[in-house]
Amino acid sequence: MRRQLAALYGNVLAGARLALFMRVRPFDYHASPLDFAWLLGFNFCMWVAVALLRSGLEGEFDPSAIAIYLAAVPIVLAAAYAVAAIYRLPERMLLIATALSASDPVFELIGLALPLLLQLVGYPRVAILVLLGWAWLVSVRAVMVCAGARRPQVVHGALAVTVMIAVGYFLLPRTDVWLAPQEEDEPPALADERMFHEQGRLIERALAGIGSGTPGRQETYFVGFAPDSSQDVFLSELRFVRRLFDERFGTQGRSIALASSVDALDELPIASVTNLGRALARVGEAMNGDEDLLFLFLTAHGSRDHRLSAVQPPLELASLTPTALSRMLQESGIKWRVIVISACYAGGFIEPLRDENSVIITAAAPDRTSFGCEPGREFTYFGDAYFRDALARTRSFTRAFEIAKESIARQEQAETLEPSLPQMWVGRAIGERLDKAAEGQRKE
């Protein structure tokens, strides 16, 4: 037993020195079948212990994961056999397999610190690629230590361990032998019968609360649409913008906000395409068509095919497309429109929506992403620049866009981000109307 423990210690120490690129020699390893078995047993115990620590010393043992761990053993032996055959040193097969396995404890410990490393680096894929590259270099070094560095054998040996790592990483399922306790998910709020029926009353009250326009006065109506509950920033942005328009642009009693969010289910109607169509139809009925203006604000994730994401579990909501929005606006009969879309790839909405009576402002070009959807934020980059900053300095929607565009460009440049390139279309007729309104404000 004492000899086996000493041999195990020697193998683990040699593996650590190999992984840290310190000097190591072939005879530093102990490569009998029993020594190899002890090393595998120790590595398994390390795997279990690290998984237990990662789970916070809670959870339960998953015996089905043992088969996945054992499946890696023949992969290592196959690689060792291939390297020994390439070098024509069959007697060193077990030595090579031992060297390939002896550094595993080092990588298990690195895996324990991996979440912290990913947080520090900020680029998870880069960090994982660095770790894979490190594992590959260590494996190639194991081949060179045990079998030599002569060519072309070392190149072929490196290819063999590359296949070993690729098979282990890409083909074996990712699993932990110690599973963290699973918290019982609370049923989505919409699954509650009272909340489900309350949604029907919310949309009816919201539609009924939209007041009719006053003949002879140019008034503004506000419709807000935040259909993605996966990020709190969309709801936060929508609430601010509605409050801004109610207080600064006089839309109190002529505004409606639709939001998909667990936190707002008892406050706001769900932001479904159907509800948006009903809201636009009701606003169209209430407005004085030739006088009043609609400000339509949409905020969500956007996709490359120019759809706004719609997420509200357990419902399966349809995403909003430019064509569907254009159809709803036409059917509503609303003539004068300012449409602001805060989403990635939002520029793809301009072409289907543009006409002589519309201003269309988007947070990004059709082929660019916008920024600021991270958890914990209250505004996207565009929402912050346009609504919180620019519209606090001017009542002109188009001038506010120019201010916000410059601000966003500076911020993206400072953070070395690919420019989002916010876009604006101004129809001829509404441009003249807005110019007259701005001129009247200056005279006042």
Would you write up a description of this structure?
With 444 residues, this protein is α/β, with parallel strands linked by helices. The protein has two domains: 178 residues, no CATH class; 251 residues, Rossmann fold (3-Layer(aba) Sandwich), CATH 3.40.50.1460. 54% of the residues lie in helices and 9% in strands. It has 15 helices and eight strands. Strands 4-3-5-6-7-8 form a six-stranded mixed sheet, sandwiched between helices. It has a two-stranded antiparallel ribbon with strand order 1-2. α2 runs parallel beside α5 and α3 packs across α4. It is elongated.
CATH topology of the largest domain: Rossmann fold
Gyration radius (Cα, Å) is: 31 Å
Question: Termini separation (Å)?
Answer: 96 Å
What summary fits the major beta sheet? Answer: 6 strands, mixed
Count of domain modules: 2
Order of helices and strands: HHEHHHHHEHEHEHEHEHEHHEH
Helical stretch tally:
15
* Helix/strand structural class: alpha/beta
- Tell me what portion of residues adopts beta-strand conformation: 5-15%
Low-confidence stretches: none
Return the CATH architecture of the largest domain.
3-Layer(aba) Sandwich
Assigned CATH class of the largest domain: Alpha Beta
